[in-house]
Write a structure and sequence with these properties.
Helix content is 37%, strand content 26%. By secondary structure, the chain is an alpha/beta fold. It is globular, with a radius of gyration of 21 Å.
């Protein structure tokens, strides 16, 4: 089975890349180990900067019909303080971002890639990957099958998340648990009293989080908590980690107590292991990386989905424009162009997210910043600008 490109991972980054390549006439295979629809730990916010891409793919109308309401305000909730300000946008006609659950978004995008002609193998994962005479040979594993296929491709695009590492053929090695590791949680609530237009950032000692109105009248709540804080809470409360974390947040954020008073949990809590914010590498030795595999911002800025899809937009556009060079010439030169363009587009968001995350987790810093934001709410609006809410990808040209 010979392909032009093999995409590892069928989430927003992988599916968007495969969709655009397949529409341009590439022979593409996608390996996705999970079955869709699937829930996933994610804040679900999608920036308005992604709407032109959805329009190009022909799904903007469907997205707007299903997604939650426009999110035109940002807030900070900490202790008894609730500060809010308008989101930054480039002009009065610019739309606002919205939110859509991953069980809907991921399915919509991967189905689009399939209809465009991509070979979607799901559930299926890469069991082994090697380079041979200018091509990549991939052994696949499919649950319930004793004999699986061997796929061959000119290039590999890894979209498996941050644990895929620096555009490598093998996952990043794990590291011993550290007290400062951040563990992430996410849940949906119904009948929650959260204003439809606001996206509050939750700041509390040792962690941060966010809430927003998403699809079907649900409120999505996601938060990260330091491992040492979580262990202490579980030892004191003797209850599941997510419940201990939620009780801790409600203790430190009056706004969360108010919103969830009378709300009902829908579908249970999800959690994921240590998140790994930082720049992981967008190209290395013939392998392109996109989404969190290339780099991950602290989720405090809510740019994960937007960065994944914008990165896919950037990479696929470059590959399509330089198809002959990538498939039959000097792929490394194209990879270097992509790496530079990716850094210009996304490194500022990753660095600003790291700074904001550290401020939110430190009570002394939050205590000093809140009066400033109350007196000058425009500073809070400016924070949404530096976090990338209106940033467009940089064209990938030398």
């Amino acid at each position: 089975m010979n392909y032009d490109a093999l995409v590892l991972g069928g989430g927003p980054a992988g599916a968007t890349t495969a969709w655009r390549l397949a529409r341009a006439g590439w022979k593409v295979a996608v390996l996705e180990k999970a079955s869709f629809p699937r829930r996933k730990v994610c804040g679900e916010f999608i920036s308005a900067t992604v709407l032109p891409l959805l329009r190009e793919l022909g799904i903007e109308k469907t997205f707007l019909e299903v997604a939650g309401p426009p999110l035109g305000k940002v807030g900070i909730w900490s202790g008894h303080h609730t500060v809010s300000a308008p989101m930054y946008r480039n002009g009065p006609a610019e739309p606002w971002g919205r939110a859509l659950g991953r069980e809907y978004l991921d399915t919509l995008l991967l189905d689009g890639a399939r209809l465009a002609g991509a070979d979607i193998r799901q559930p299926c994962k890469a069991a082994g990957l090697m380079r041979d005479k200018g091509r990549y040979i991939c052994q696949t594993e499919t649950p319930g099958k004793s004999s699986d296929a061997e796929l061959s491709a000119r290039i590999v695009i890894t979209a498996q998340g941050s644990h895929a590492g620096r555009a490598r053929l093998t996952p990043m090695p794990g590291h011993p648990p550290q007290p400062s590791d951040l563990i992430a949680f996410k849940a949906h609530f119904v009948q929650a009293d959260l204003p439809a237009c606001v996206l509050p950032v939750l700041a509390f000692p040792g962690g941060y989080g966010g809430m927003l109105q998403t699809d079907h009248g649900r409120v999505c709540m996601a938060f990260c908590l330091r491992r040492d804080v979580l262990q202490r809470l579980r030892g004191q409360a003797r209850c599941p980690a997510a419940e201990a974390g939620l009780a801790y947040i409600m203790e430190h954020c009056a706004g969360v107590r108010r919103v969830l008073d009378g709300a009902r949990l829908q579908g249970g809590w999800l959690s994921t292991g240590t998140i790994t914010p930082g720049i992981h590498g967008s190209y290395n030795d013939g392998v392109f990386a996109v989404g969190n595999a290339a780099g991950e911002a602290h989720p405090i800025i809510g740019e994960g989905i937007s960065m994944a899809m914008q990165g896919a937009w950037l990479l696929s556009g470059l590959l399509i424009a330089r198809r002959a060079q990538v498939l039959y010439g000097d792929a490394a030169a194209v990879g270097n162009i992509y790496a530079r363009a990716w850094y210009r587009s996304f490194a500022p968001r990753i660095y600003s997210a790291a700074f904001l995350a550290q401020m939110a987790m430190r009570p002394a810093a939050t205590k000093q910043l809140l009066p400033l934001f109350q007196f000058l709410p425009g500073l809070l609006t400016a924070c949404t600008r530096i976090s990338g809410k209106t940033a467009k990808v940089v064209p990938a040209h030398p």
